[in-house]
Amino acid sequence: MLVTSVEIEAFRNITNKQTMAVDPEVTCLIGKNESGKTTVLKALHRLNPANNADDFHVTTDYPRRNLARDRRTKDLDTVAPVTAVFELEEADFDAIEELVGVRPPVRTYVKASRFYDGSLRADVYSALEDVLADVFEEAGVDDEDDRKAIAAADHTTIEAVSAAAKARAREVGGGKKTARVKAIEKVPAELDLRKQYVEGRLNGEEHEQLIELLPKFFYFSTYEMLPGDCDLHALAERARTRQWRRGDETMMSLLRLAGEGPDDFLDEDYASRKAELQAASLDLSAQVFQYWKQNEDLTVVFDTDLAPMPPDANGQPQPHHRVLKIELRDDRHGGVETNFSTRSTGFQWFFSFLAAFSAYRDTDERVVVLLDEPGTSLHGEAQGDFLRYVYRELGPNQQVLYTTHSQHMIDPTRYETMRAIHDQATRADPNLGVVITSVSLSADPKTILPVEAALGYSVAQHLFLGAGPLLAVEGSSDFIFLMRMSDYLVSQGRTGLDPRLAIIPVGGIGNMPAFIAVMGR
Fold first, then answer.
1. How far is it, in rounded angstroms, from Cα 25 to Cα 22?
2. Beta pairing, strands 400-404 & 229-231
3. DSSP assignment of 388-436
4. Helix, strand or coil for residue 294?
Protein backbone atom coordinates (compact mmCIF):
# COMPACT_ATOMS: atom_id res chain seq x y z
CA MET A 1 0.00 0.00 0.00
CA LEU A 2 1.04 3.59 -0.63
CA VAL A 3 0.10 6.51 1.62
CA THR A 4 -1.80 9.11 -0.41
CA SER A 5 -2.93 11.52 2.30
CA VAL A 6 -2.74 12.11 6.04
CA GLU A 7 -5.06 13.83 8.51
CA ILE A 8 -3.70 15.06 11.85
CA GLU A 9 -5.72 16.80 14.55
CA ALA A 10 -5.75 17.41 18.30
CA PHE A 11 -2.08 16.47 18.68
CA ARG A 12 0.32 18.81 20.46
CA ASN A 13 0.35 22.16 18.57
CA ILE A 14 -1.90 20.87 15.74
CA THR A 15 -5.26 21.98 17.11
CA ASN A 16 -7.36 22.03 13.93
CA LYS A 17 -7.54 19.14 11.48
CA GLN A 18 -4.81 19.35 8.83
CA THR A 19 -4.85 17.26 5.65
CA MET A 20 -1.64 16.67 3.72
CA ALA A 21 -1.19 14.95 0.37
CA VAL A 22 1.73 12.50 0.31
CA ASP A 23 3.91 11.97 -2.76
CA PRO A 24 4.23 8.34 -3.93
CA GLU A 25 8.02 8.55 -3.55
CA VAL A 26 9.43 11.51 -1.56
CA THR A 27 7.66 14.26 0.41
CA CYS A 28 9.68 17.14 1.85
CA LEU A 29 8.30 19.04 4.86
CA ILE A 30 9.72 22.56 5.10
CA GLY A 31 9.37 24.96 8.01
CA LYS A 32 11.12 26.99 10.67
CA ASN A 33 12.29 25.58 13.98
CA GLU A 34 9.33 24.85 16.32
CA SER A 35 6.92 25.04 13.39
CA GLY A 36 5.53 21.52 13.90
CA LYS A 37 7.49 19.46 11.37
CA THR A 38 8.54 16.86 13.95
CA THR A 39 4.98 16.75 15.27
CA VAL A 40 3.75 15.61 11.85
CA LEU A 41 6.35 12.82 11.66
CA LYS A 42 5.74 11.71 15.25
CA ALA A 43 2.01 11.42 14.60
CA LEU A 44 2.60 9.37 11.46
CA HIS A 45 5.12 7.11 13.20
CA ARG A 46 2.64 6.24 15.94
CA LEU A 47 0.04 5.16 13.40
CA ASN A 48 1.86 1.85 12.84
CA PRO A 49 5.46 2.00 14.13
CA ALA A 50 8.21 -0.19 12.72
CA ASN A 51 10.75 0.86 15.37
CA ASN A 52 10.83 2.68 18.71
CA ALA A 53 7.11 2.05 19.24
CA ASP A 54 5.28 4.74 21.17
CA ASP A 55 1.64 5.50 22.02
CA PHE A 56 -0.49 8.63 22.14
CA HIS A 57 -1.15 9.92 25.68
CA VAL A 58 -4.05 12.27 26.32
CA THR A 59 -2.38 14.09 29.21
CA THR A 60 0.85 14.86 27.38
CA ASP A 61 -0.14 14.92 23.69
CA TYR A 62 -3.63 16.45 23.55
CA PRO A 63 -3.47 20.26 22.95
CA ARG A 64 -2.96 21.49 26.50
CA ARG A 65 -5.10 24.61 26.38
CA ASN A 66 -8.12 22.58 25.18
CA LEU A 67 -7.65 19.54 27.43
CA ALA A 68 -9.85 20.50 30.39
CA ARG A 69 -12.60 21.99 28.18
CA ASP A 70 -12.80 19.06 25.77
CA ARG A 71 -12.74 16.45 28.53
CA ARG A 72 -16.06 17.82 29.79
CA THR A 73 -17.82 17.32 26.44
CA LYS A 74 -16.37 14.14 24.90
CA ASP A 75 -14.40 10.97 25.55
CA LEU A 76 -10.89 11.92 24.43
CA ASP A 77 -9.87 8.27 24.17
CA THR A 78 -12.09 8.03 21.07
CA VAL A 79 -10.28 10.92 19.31
CA ALA A 80 -7.99 9.85 16.44
CA PRO A 81 -4.93 12.17 16.29
CA VAL A 82 -3.79 10.60 13.01
CA THR A 83 -5.57 9.05 10.04
CA ALA A 84 -3.96 7.92 6.78
CA VAL A 85 -5.47 6.96 3.44
CA PHE A 86 -3.69 4.21 1.47
CA GLU A 87 -3.80 3.38 -2.22
CA LEU A 88 -3.86 -0.34 -2.98
CA GLU A 89 -1.16 -2.06 -5.00
CA GLU A 90 -1.66 -5.27 -6.99
CA ALA A 91 -0.64 -7.54 -4.11
CA ASP A 92 -3.13 -5.72 -1.84
CA PHE A 93 -6.00 -6.34 -4.27
CA ASP A 94 -5.14 -10.04 -4.24
CA ALA A 95 -4.90 -10.16 -0.42
CA ILE A 96 -8.18 -8.29 0.13
CA GLU A 97 -9.97 -10.44 -2.43
CA GLU A 98 -8.87 -13.50 -0.47
CA LEU A 99 -9.96 -11.79 2.75
CA VAL A 100 -13.44 -10.64 1.70
CA GLY A 101 -14.18 -13.21 -0.98
CA VAL A 102 -14.67 -10.83 -3.91
CA ARG A 103 -12.15 -8.57 -5.65
CA PRO A 104 -12.34 -4.88 -4.69
CA PRO A 105 -13.00 -2.25 -7.39
CA VAL A 106 -10.03 -0.51 -8.99
CA ARG A 107 -10.26 2.72 -6.99
CA THR A 108 -10.72 1.03 -3.61
CA TYR A 109 -8.67 2.54 -0.77
CA VAL A 110 -7.89 1.78 2.87
CA LYS A 111 -8.28 4.27 5.71
CA ALA A 112 -6.51 3.66 9.03
CA SER A 113 -6.72 5.65 12.28
CA ARG A 114 -4.85 5.42 15.59
CA PHE A 115 -6.83 6.60 18.64
CA TYR A 116 -5.79 8.05 21.98
CA ASP A 117 -6.80 4.80 23.69
CA GLY A 118 -4.09 3.06 21.64
CA SER A 119 -6.41 1.15 19.31
CA LEU A 120 -5.82 1.01 15.55
CA ARG A 121 -8.81 0.87 13.20
CA ALA A 122 -8.55 0.13 9.47
CA ASP A 123 -11.28 -0.34 6.86
CA VAL A 124 -11.63 -0.76 3.11
CA TYR A 125 -13.71 1.76 1.18
CA SER A 126 -15.05 2.03 -2.36
CA ALA A 127 -17.39 4.53 -4.01
CA LEU A 128 -20.82 3.04 -4.68
CA GLU A 129 -20.49 3.93 -8.37
CA ASP A 130 -17.26 1.90 -8.63
CA VAL A 131 -18.88 -1.07 -6.89
CA LEU A 132 -21.85 -0.84 -9.25
CA ALA A 133 -19.57 -0.89 -12.30
CA ASP A 134 -18.17 -4.25 -11.12
CA VAL A 135 -21.65 -5.51 -10.18
CA PHE A 136 -23.09 -4.73 -13.63
CA GLU A 137 -20.13 -6.46 -15.26
CA GLU A 138 -20.45 -9.55 -13.07
CA ALA A 139 -24.26 -9.77 -13.37
CA GLY A 140 -24.22 -9.15 -17.11
CA VAL A 141 -26.35 -5.97 -17.09
CA ASP A 142 -25.44 -4.54 -20.49
CA ASP A 143 -28.39 -2.30 -21.32
CA GLU A 144 -27.43 1.33 -20.68
CA ASP A 145 -31.01 2.30 -19.73
CA ASP A 146 -31.09 -0.47 -17.11
CA ARG A 147 -27.81 0.74 -15.63
CA LYS A 148 -29.04 4.34 -15.45
CA ALA A 149 -32.34 3.33 -13.82
CA ILE A 150 -30.58 1.24 -11.17
CA ALA A 151 -27.82 3.79 -10.51
CA ALA A 152 -30.03 6.91 -10.42
CA ALA A 153 -28.68 9.93 -8.55
CA ASP A 154 -30.95 9.46 -5.52
CA HIS A 155 -29.88 5.83 -5.04
CA THR A 156 -27.03 6.46 -2.60
CA THR A 157 -27.15 3.30 -0.46
CA ILE A 158 -26.89 -0.43 -1.06
CA GLU A 159 -30.53 -0.83 -0.02
CA ALA A 160 -31.76 1.87 -2.39
CA VAL A 161 -29.86 0.41 -5.35
CA SER A 162 -31.08 -3.12 -4.58
CA ALA A 163 -34.67 -1.89 -4.43
CA ALA A 164 -34.19 -0.03 -7.72
CA ALA A 165 -32.84 -3.21 -9.36
CA LYS A 166 -35.83 -5.25 -8.21
CA ALA A 167 -38.22 -2.58 -9.46
CA ARG A 168 -36.42 -2.39 -12.80
CA ALA A 169 -36.63 -6.17 -13.21
CA ARG A 170 -40.41 -6.06 -12.69
CA GLU A 171 -40.73 -3.09 -15.04
CA VAL A 172 -38.90 -4.62 -18.03
CA GLY A 173 -39.92 -8.24 -17.41
CA GLY A 174 -43.68 -8.05 -17.62
CA GLY A 175 -43.85 -11.36 -15.78
CA LYS A 176 -41.33 -13.06 -18.10
CA LYS A 177 -37.91 -14.35 -17.04
CA THR A 178 -35.85 -13.15 -19.97
CA ALA A 179 -32.04 -13.11 -19.95
CA ARG A 180 -32.19 -9.35 -19.43
CA VAL A 181 -34.44 -9.74 -16.38
CA LYS A 182 -32.29 -12.50 -14.90
CA ALA A 183 -29.21 -10.28 -15.23
CA ILE A 184 -30.94 -7.41 -13.41
CA GLU A 185 -32.15 -9.76 -10.67
CA LYS A 186 -28.54 -10.77 -9.93
CA VAL A 187 -27.67 -7.19 -8.94
CA PRO A 188 -28.88 -7.30 -5.28
CA ALA A 189 -26.93 -10.49 -4.55
CA GLU A 190 -23.75 -9.15 -6.19
CA LEU A 191 -24.14 -5.90 -4.25
CA ASP A 192 -24.49 -7.80 -0.99
CA LEU A 193 -21.16 -9.54 -1.65
CA ARG A 194 -19.49 -6.13 -1.92
CA LYS A 195 -21.38 -4.39 0.91
CA GLN A 196 -18.26 -4.16 3.08
CA TYR A 197 -16.48 -2.06 0.46
CA VAL A 198 -19.22 0.58 0.51
CA GLU A 199 -19.89 0.57 4.25
CA GLY A 200 -16.30 0.06 5.37
CA ARG A 201 -17.13 -2.48 8.05
CA LEU A 202 -15.00 -5.62 8.39
CA ASN A 203 -15.53 -8.27 11.03
CA GLY A 204 -12.95 -8.91 13.74
CA GLU A 205 -10.78 -11.46 11.94
CA GLU A 206 -10.91 -9.59 8.63
CA HIS A 207 -9.97 -6.39 10.44
CA GLU A 208 -6.92 -7.95 12.10
CA GLN A 209 -5.72 -9.36 8.77
CA LEU A 210 -6.17 -5.98 7.07
CA ILE A 211 -4.04 -4.32 9.74
CA GLU A 212 -1.29 -6.83 8.96
CA LEU A 213 -1.28 -5.50 5.38
CA LEU A 214 -0.68 -1.88 6.43
CA PRO A 215 2.80 -0.42 5.86
CA LYS A 216 4.97 0.15 8.91
CA PHE A 217 6.43 3.61 9.65
CA PHE A 218 10.18 3.78 10.31
CA TYR A 219 11.29 6.92 12.21
CA PHE A 220 14.90 8.08 12.44
CA SER A 221 16.49 11.15 14.01
CA THR A 222 19.82 12.07 15.61
CA TYR A 223 18.72 10.29 18.82
CA GLU A 224 19.00 6.88 17.15
CA MET A 225 22.72 7.10 16.28
CA LEU A 226 25.03 4.17 16.89
CA PRO A 227 27.34 4.33 19.91
CA GLY A 228 31.07 3.84 19.40
CA ASP A 229 31.16 1.18 22.14
CA CYS A 230 28.37 -1.25 23.08
CA ASP A 231 28.23 -3.46 26.18
CA LEU A 232 26.75 -6.62 24.62
CA HIS A 233 25.84 -8.15 28.00
CA ALA A 234 23.84 -5.04 28.95
CA LEU A 235 22.29 -4.82 25.46
CA ALA A 236 21.16 -8.46 25.64
CA GLU A 237 19.50 -7.78 29.00
CA ARG A 238 17.72 -4.66 27.69
CA ALA A 239 16.56 -6.66 24.65
CA ARG A 240 15.00 -9.27 26.94
CA THR A 241 13.16 -6.64 29.00
CA ARG A 242 12.43 -4.31 26.03
CA GLN A 243 13.87 -1.42 28.04
CA TRP A 244 15.63 0.35 25.19
CA ARG A 245 18.11 3.19 25.39
CA ARG A 246 18.93 5.63 22.62
CA GLY A 247 20.83 3.89 19.85
CA ASP A 248 19.93 0.36 21.03
CA GLU A 249 17.52 -0.43 18.21
CA THR A 250 20.03 0.84 15.65
CA MET A 251 22.65 -1.51 17.11
CA MET A 252 20.12 -4.36 17.06
CA SER A 253 19.50 -3.67 13.36
CA LEU A 254 23.24 -3.83 12.70
CA LEU A 255 23.47 -7.17 14.52
CA ARG A 256 20.43 -8.52 12.66
CA LEU A 257 22.08 -7.58 9.37
CA ALA A 258 24.85 -9.99 10.42
CA GLY A 259 22.23 -12.60 11.28
CA GLU A 260 23.05 -12.42 14.98
CA GLY A 261 21.74 -11.04 18.26
CA PRO A 262 23.65 -9.64 21.27
CA ASP A 263 23.44 -13.00 23.11
CA ASP A 264 25.20 -14.75 20.22
CA PHE A 265 28.41 -12.82 20.82
CA LEU A 266 28.71 -13.93 24.43
CA ASP A 267 29.64 -17.58 23.87
CA GLU A 268 32.87 -19.31 22.82
CA ASP A 269 32.04 -19.13 19.12
CA TYR A 270 32.54 -15.36 19.09
CA ALA A 271 35.27 -15.32 16.40
CA SER A 272 33.04 -16.68 13.63
CA ARG A 273 30.25 -14.32 14.60
CA LYS A 274 32.65 -11.41 14.45
CA ALA A 275 33.34 -12.43 10.85
CA GLU A 276 29.60 -12.28 10.12
CA LEU A 277 29.44 -8.82 11.65
CA GLN A 278 32.45 -7.74 9.60
CA ALA A 279 30.71 -8.94 6.42
CA ALA A 280 27.65 -6.90 7.40
CA SER A 281 29.80 -3.82 7.98
CA LEU A 282 31.39 -4.21 4.54
CA ASP A 283 27.92 -4.35 3.00
CA LEU A 284 26.88 -1.19 4.82
CA SER A 285 30.18 0.54 4.02
CA ALA A 286 29.68 -0.13 0.31
CA GLN A 287 26.34 1.69 0.52
CA VAL A 288 27.74 4.53 2.59
CA PHE A 289 30.69 5.26 0.34
CA GLN A 290 28.58 5.15 -2.79
CA TYR A 291 27.21 8.49 -1.60
CA TRP A 292 29.68 9.66 1.08
CA LYS A 293 32.23 11.63 -0.92
CA GLN A 294 33.81 13.64 1.90
CA ASN A 295 36.39 10.93 2.67
CA GLU A 296 36.25 7.75 0.60
CA ASP A 297 39.34 6.26 2.28
CA LEU A 298 37.50 5.15 5.42
CA THR A 299 36.87 1.51 6.32
CA VAL A 300 34.60 0.30 9.13
CA VAL A 301 36.27 -2.22 11.47
CA PHE A 302 34.81 -4.13 14.43
CA ASP A 303 36.81 -5.07 17.52
CA THR A 304 36.03 -6.24 21.05
CA ASP A 305 37.28 -5.88 24.54
CA LEU A 306 36.53 -7.57 27.86
CA ALA A 307 35.71 -4.77 30.27
CA PRO A 308 35.99 -5.35 34.05
CA MET A 309 32.80 -4.72 36.04
CA PRO A 310 32.61 -3.17 39.52
CA PRO A 311 31.73 -5.48 42.45
CA ASP A 312 28.04 -6.04 43.19
CA ALA A 313 26.19 -4.58 46.19
CA ASN A 314 27.63 -7.32 48.44
CA GLY A 315 31.19 -6.65 47.32
CA GLN A 316 31.35 -9.80 45.20
CA PRO A 317 33.36 -9.66 41.95
CA GLN A 318 31.39 -9.59 38.68
CA PRO A 319 32.34 -11.33 35.43
CA HIS A 320 33.84 -9.20 32.67
CA HIS A 321 31.47 -7.87 30.00
CA ARG A 322 32.17 -8.18 26.30
CA VAL A 323 32.20 -4.75 24.65
CA LEU A 324 31.77 -4.32 20.90
CA LYS A 325 33.81 -1.46 19.46
CA ILE A 326 33.11 0.21 16.11
CA GLU A 327 36.33 1.60 14.66
CA LEU A 328 37.15 3.51 11.48
CA ARG A 329 40.40 2.96 9.63
CA ASP A 330 41.48 6.09 7.78
CA ASP A 331 43.83 5.13 4.93
CA ARG A 332 44.16 8.79 4.03
CA HIS A 333 46.17 9.17 7.24
CA GLY A 334 48.29 6.02 7.24
CA GLY A 335 45.63 3.52 8.31
CA VAL A 336 45.04 5.04 11.74
CA GLU A 337 42.03 3.47 13.53
CA THR A 338 39.81 5.67 15.70
CA ASN A 339 36.55 5.04 17.53
CA PHE A 340 33.35 5.64 15.57
CA SER A 341 32.16 8.17 18.19
CA THR A 342 35.18 10.42 17.51
CA ARG A 343 34.40 10.83 13.81
CA SER A 344 32.39 13.70 12.40
CA THR A 345 28.78 13.87 13.55
CA GLY A 346 27.75 13.88 9.91
CA PHE A 347 29.42 10.56 9.17
CA GLN A 348 28.05 9.03 12.38
CA TRP A 349 24.54 10.06 11.34
CA PHE A 350 24.88 8.76 7.77
CA PHE A 351 26.26 5.37 8.81
CA SER A 352 23.79 5.02 11.71
CA PHE A 353 20.82 5.66 9.46
CA LEU A 354 21.91 3.01 6.96
CA ALA A 355 22.52 0.57 9.82
CA ALA A 356 19.08 1.24 11.34
CA PHE A 357 17.30 0.99 7.99
CA SER A 358 19.18 -2.16 6.95
CA ALA A 359 16.50 -4.29 8.62
CA TYR A 360 13.95 -2.98 6.11
CA ARG A 361 16.13 -2.36 3.05
CA ASP A 362 15.61 -5.65 1.24
CA THR A 363 12.08 -6.44 2.39
CA ASP A 364 9.22 -6.79 -0.08
CA GLU A 365 6.89 -5.22 2.47
CA ARG A 366 6.06 -1.53 2.34
CA VAL A 367 7.87 0.64 4.90
CA VAL A 368 7.35 4.41 5.07
CA VAL A 369 10.63 6.12 6.02
CA LEU A 370 10.32 9.19 8.27
CA LEU A 371 13.52 11.25 8.52
CA ASP A 372 13.56 14.05 11.09
CA GLU A 373 15.96 16.82 10.02
CA PRO A 374 18.34 14.42 8.23
CA GLY A 375 21.91 15.46 7.62
CA THR A 376 21.87 18.68 9.66
CA SER A 377 25.46 17.96 10.72
CA LEU A 378 26.59 17.31 7.15
CA HIS A 379 28.48 19.78 4.98
CA GLY A 380 26.30 21.32 2.26
CA GLU A 381 27.91 19.17 -0.43
CA ALA A 382 27.39 16.02 1.68
CA GLN A 383 23.75 17.00 2.21
CA GLY A 384 23.44 17.10 -1.56
CA ASP A 385 24.93 13.58 -1.70
CA PHE A 386 22.37 12.36 0.83
CA LEU A 387 19.54 14.10 -1.02
CA ARG A 388 20.52 12.18 -4.16
CA TYR A 389 20.46 8.99 -2.07
CA VAL A 390 16.93 9.83 -0.89
CA TYR A 391 15.61 10.45 -4.41
CA ARG A 392 17.57 7.74 -6.25
CA GLU A 393 17.74 4.87 -3.74
CA LEU A 394 15.13 5.29 -1.01
CA GLY A 395 12.22 6.97 -2.78
CA PRO A 396 11.90 4.54 -5.72
CA ASN A 397 11.72 1.60 -3.26
CA GLN A 398 9.99 2.93 -0.14
CA GLN A 399 8.01 6.11 0.48
CA VAL A 400 10.01 8.82 2.28
CA LEU A 401 8.87 11.85 4.26
CA TYR A 402 11.60 14.09 5.62
CA THR A 403 11.76 17.46 7.37
CA THR A 404 14.33 20.15 6.73
CA HIS A 405 15.16 23.81 6.93
CA SER A 406 18.40 23.47 4.96
CA GLN A 407 18.63 24.75 1.40
CA HIS A 408 21.01 21.89 0.55
CA MET A 409 18.38 19.29 1.47
CA ILE A 410 15.92 20.71 -1.07
CA ASP A 411 15.68 20.09 -4.80
CA PRO A 412 14.10 23.39 -5.94
CA THR A 413 12.77 21.84 -9.14
CA ARG A 414 10.61 19.33 -7.23
CA TYR A 415 7.91 21.72 -6.08
CA GLU A 416 5.22 19.04 -6.13
CA THR A 417 7.01 17.07 -3.38
CA MET A 418 7.17 19.97 -0.90
CA ARG A 419 4.79 20.84 1.94
CA ALA A 420 5.12 23.97 4.09
CA ILE A 421 4.53 23.71 7.84
CA HIS A 422 3.52 26.97 9.56
CA ASP A 423 2.68 27.55 13.22
CA GLN A 424 0.21 30.43 12.93
CA ALA A 425 -0.63 30.65 16.64
CA THR A 426 -0.14 34.05 18.27
CA ARG A 427 -0.67 35.41 21.76
CA ALA A 428 -3.81 37.09 20.49
CA ASP A 429 -5.14 33.89 18.89
CA PRO A 430 -3.37 30.76 20.22
CA ASN A 431 -6.03 28.47 18.76
CA LEU A 432 -4.76 28.88 15.18
CA GLY A 433 -2.04 26.26 15.67
CA VAL A 434 -0.07 24.50 12.95
CA VAL A 435 -1.24 24.51 9.32
CA ILE A 436 0.09 22.44 6.42
CA THR A 437 0.03 23.94 2.93
CA SER A 438 1.66 23.47 -0.42
CA VAL A 439 4.81 25.49 -1.05
CA SER A 440 4.19 28.78 -2.83
CA LEU A 441 6.59 31.65 -3.31
CA SER A 442 3.75 33.89 -2.09
CA ALA A 443 3.69 32.06 1.26
CA ASP A 444 5.34 33.12 4.54
CA PRO A 445 8.84 34.24 3.44
CA LYS A 446 10.49 32.83 6.59
CA THR A 447 8.96 29.40 6.05
CA ILE A 448 9.94 29.07 2.40
CA LEU A 449 13.35 30.77 2.78
CA PRO A 450 15.18 27.43 2.25
CA VAL A 451 13.31 26.94 -1.05
CA GLU A 452 14.25 30.40 -2.30
CA ALA A 453 17.83 29.87 -1.13
CA ALA A 454 18.02 26.51 -2.90
CA LEU A 455 16.66 28.06 -6.08
CA GLY A 456 19.12 30.93 -5.84
CA TYR A 457 22.01 28.54 -5.20
CA SER A 458 21.05 26.41 -8.19
CA VAL A 459 20.90 29.47 -10.44
CA ALA A 460 24.20 30.74 -9.04
CA GLN A 461 25.84 27.38 -9.76
CA HIS A 462 24.76 27.70 -13.38
CA LEU A 463 25.77 31.34 -13.56
CA PHE A 464 29.25 31.08 -12.07
CA LEU A 465 30.21 27.46 -12.67
CA GLY A 466 28.39 26.74 -15.92
CA ALA A 467 30.47 26.61 -19.06
CA GLY A 468 29.11 26.96 -22.54
CA PRO A 469 25.88 28.51 -23.79
CA LEU A 470 23.36 30.25 -21.52
CA LEU A 471 19.58 30.14 -21.90
CA ALA A 472 18.01 33.29 -20.48
CA VAL A 473 14.40 32.84 -19.29
CA GLU A 474 11.99 35.23 -17.60
CA GLY A 475 11.57 33.79 -14.12
CA SER A 476 12.09 30.94 -11.66
CA SER A 477 8.94 29.11 -12.80
CA ASP A 478 10.43 28.82 -16.32
CA PHE A 479 13.65 27.48 -14.82
CA ILE A 480 11.79 24.84 -12.77
CA PHE A 481 9.52 23.80 -15.64
CA LEU A 482 12.35 23.37 -18.14
CA MET A 483 14.56 21.45 -15.68
CA ARG A 484 11.77 19.04 -14.68
CA MET A 485 10.58 18.55 -18.27
CA SER A 486 14.14 17.82 -19.38
CA ASP A 487 14.63 15.33 -16.49
CA TYR A 488 11.38 13.59 -17.44
CA LEU A 489 12.31 13.30 -21.11
CA VAL A 490 15.71 11.85 -20.21
CA SER A 491 14.04 9.33 -17.85
CA GLN A 492 11.88 8.20 -20.80
CA GLY A 493 14.90 7.66 -23.02
CA ARG A 494 14.20 10.80 -25.01
CA THR A 495 16.26 13.93 -25.63
CA GLY A 496 16.44 16.53 -22.87
CA LEU A 497 18.21 19.85 -22.78
CA ASP A 498 21.87 19.88 -23.70
CA PRO A 499 23.68 19.40 -20.33
CA ARG A 500 26.13 22.17 -21.33
CA LEU A 501 23.24 24.65 -21.35
CA ALA A 502 22.90 26.85 -18.26
CA ILE A 503 19.38 28.20 -17.62
CA ILE A 504 19.36 31.66 -16.03
CA PRO A 505 16.17 33.40 -14.82
CA VAL A 506 16.76 37.11 -15.39
CA GLY A 507 13.61 38.39 -13.68
CA GLY A 508 11.65 39.73 -16.63
CA ILE A 509 12.17 40.83 -20.21
CA GLY A 510 13.13 44.32 -19.01
CA ASN A 511 16.27 42.89 -17.38
CA MET A 512 17.43 41.15 -20.53
CA PRO A 513 19.59 44.03 -21.90
CA ALA A 514 21.43 44.42 -18.59
CA PHE A 515 21.97 40.66 -18.35
CA ILE A 516 23.37 40.51 -21.89
CA ALA A 517 25.59 43.49 -21.18
CA VAL A 518 27.09 41.74 -18.13
CA MET A 519 27.47 38.31 -19.69
CA GLY A 520 28.62 39.78 -22.99
CA ARG A 521 31.96 40.57 -21.42
1. 8
2. unpaired
3. HHIIIIITTTS-EEEEE--GGG--TT-GGGEEEEEE---SS-TT--EEE
4. coil
Phi-psi region of 21 (alpha: psi -120 to 50; beta: other; left: phi over 0): beta
DSSP 257-271: HTT--GGGGGSTTHH
Give the total residue count for the chain: 521
pLDDT in tens, the chain (521 residues): 999 999 999 998 898 899 999 999 999 999 888 888 999 999 999 999 988 788 899 999 998 888 989 998 999 999 999 999 999 999 999 999 998 889 999 999 999 999 999 999 999 999 999 999 999 999 998 888 888 888 887 888 888 889 999 988 888 877 778 888 889 889 999 999 888 888 888 888 889 999 999 999 999 887 778 888 888 888 888 888 888 887 888 888 877 776 667 777 676 666 666 777 777 777 777 777 776 766 777 777 777 777 888 887 788 888 878 888 888 888 887 788 888 888 778 778 888 887 788 777 777 788 999 999 888 877 777 788 888 888 888 888 889 999 988 888 888 778 788 898 888 777 777 777 788 888 865 566 777 777 777 776 766 665 555 456 788 888 878 888 898 899 889 888 999 998 878 788 877 778 777 777 766 65
Q: What is the pTM of this model?
A: 0.80
Q: Give the three-class secondary structure for 295.
A: coil
